[in-house]
Amino acid sequence: MQSLKKWIPIVHWLPKYQRNDLRGDIAAGLTVAVMLVPQGMAYAMLAGLPLIVGLYASIVPLLIYAMFGSSPQLAVGPVAIVSLMVATGVSRLAQPGTGEYLLLATLLALLVGIVQLGMGMTRLGFLVNFLAHPVISGFTSAAALIIGLSQLKHLLGIAIPRGGIHTILWYTLQHISDVHVTTLIIGVSSIAMLMILKKWQKLLPGALVVVAVGTTLVWLLGLADAGVKIVGVVPGGLPSPQLPAVDGDAVLSLLPIALAISMVGFTQSIAVAKSFAARNQYEIEANQELTGLGLANIAAGFFGAYPVTGGFSRTAVNAQTGARTGLASMITAGTIALTVLFLTNLFYYLPYAVLAAIIMVAVLGLIDVKEVVFLYRVKKSDLSLLILAFVSTLTLGIENGILVSVFASLVLVIKQTTAPHSAELGRLPGSTIFRNIERYPEAETTDGLAILRIDAPLYFANIEYLRDRLQKLEHKTTSPLHAIVFDASSVSSIDSSAVTALSEIVKNYQRRDIQFYMANVRGPVRDVMKRSSFYDLLGADHFFYCIEDAIKHFHGQIESIENEAPRGIVIAQ
């Protein structure tokens, strides 16, 4: 039963459901539904899909996530970044608006779900940690800019061809005289209204307000006859479950973008989920999140929808209006299902300019200017990663931008582990505390003795760095070197290659009559050293609890290890 509760969270929370939570869940579910109806249609438009598909993506996937996801407040559904990625990937294989395009989008949802489910079942949620936050911020900001510019055609009423940002901007400037003024007024007014409501009435569903106002005005004033483009007929009815047409060539073509959406979607979702978990004091399990999202996307593929993930703005509203359990998402799904069954005729006169305004305002918050300022002040090397991801995404496109972003993250990880931080230590006056002599100029050093600390696990990729660091330390000393104390307090693990290389280093020092001491060795590191020849090579009397004892042994103040057993080598820890 415990295993079932772990893999199917609804089995855990539903039997213990509190009546006191019902009011909040109902309020949150209805509020998010009101918000998601116009957003779902807008994001479907961004993805190049029929508007109804955005609503399909807001029904069954939400029910599935509510059963299998680990966050009671995460609002899953269509989001801007994933919608753009769908458009980018699928448009290379089919023309947007065609039946083939829709089939490929549903197949893509299935592939994303399979990838995420596989990662969750094999507990690969940690892989998201390889995407550095500055890189994600740069990619997201660039994608937001691309999304905003892609909506200019609907905002201005100009038939701008698909392409990069330079193509969009250049074409817009060349055809600025073709702007449809009425469409522009509707779009700009909608943007202004959304921003005002967002600032002053945060709990009021601004997207629904502008949809209602825009649709009503177009209908009353007959603006469709004046050239304002409207969505027209939105088909009603719920989709029947069916397996997307699986074609081998299509699967291979879609797999790269499916992998990218899986990682980006999960990264966004887990970040949002953890943020609200911290605020409301509950735990999020990354691998269970992958499982929940994976099953939700598989359901999206079976029910004629496209990939979904967690959205920040809807999750914020969900939490603020009282969501306590996954029942809130179920209520959202039920409300949207009723909308699809009975209310789609109300959207006939909805202008595309209003949907464009909803998208533009939504992605405005994704452009992370605060992060740029923060990184400039705190760490400029991280800022360079953000800029690299931003520029590469803008210039090379979404897919290539993701590849560059992932590569940059991996390079950062490799750099930090192959050339980790290290420090030569000295004793603070009148104490047994040892600190970096570059940060503490008053720290005292001893002639003929050097103390080195490496702040990283030791493994095959960074052992040469340790060797070079020791050589530089030896060359730096003004007097002949007689002993080295290696502070291993920050070494959490060591592999066989590092132990072998360390043995060679010690043998070299022994040939030159230079003592080598190990201090503050952690249990797992010591275990590896004991299983190898390194422990016997160095000798038990050269391992110490602390740097101070190693120095005393060097000065002859500790004659033998037996006399200092409580403070000598760590036998058990």
Summarize this structure as a short list of keywords or feature phrases:
25 helices; Transcription Regulator spoIIAA; 60% helix; 573 residues; 2 domains; mainly alpha; single chain
Annotate the secondary structure layout.
Layout (H helix, E strand, L loop, with lengths): L1 H6 L2 H4 L8 H25 L4 H6 L3 H9 L7 E2 L2 H11 L8 H23 L11 H18 L1 H5 L8 H10 L6 H20 L5 H16 L26 H33 L5 H17 L6 E2 L1 H9 L6 H16 L9 H13 L4 H10 L1 H17 L1 H21 L3 E6 L6 E3 L12 E6 L8 H14 L6 E5 L8 H16 L3 E5 L3 H9 L2 H5 L4 E2 L2 H8 L19
Parallel strand pairs: 5-6, 6-7, 7-8
Antiparallel strand pairs: 1-2, 3-4, 3-5
Concise description?
The protein has 573 residues and is mainly alpha-helical. The chain has 25 helices and 8 strands.
Strand content: 5-15%
Shape: elongated
Rg, please? Answer: 30 Å
DSSP summary: helix tally: 25
Could you tell me the mean pLDDT? 90
User: Largest sheet, described in full?
Assistant: 6 strands, mixed
General description of the model:
The chain is mainly alpha-helical. The chain has 2 domains: 9-413, no CATH class; 422-567, 2-Layer Sandwich (Transcription Regulator spoIIAA), CATH 3.30.750. The chain is built from 25 helices and 8 strands. The strands form 2 sheets. It has a 6-stranded mixed beta sheet with strand order 4-3-5-6-7-8, with helices on both faces. A two-stranded antiparallel sheet has the order 1-2. The chain is elongated, with a radius of gyration of 30 Å. Residues 560-573 have low confidence and may be disordered.
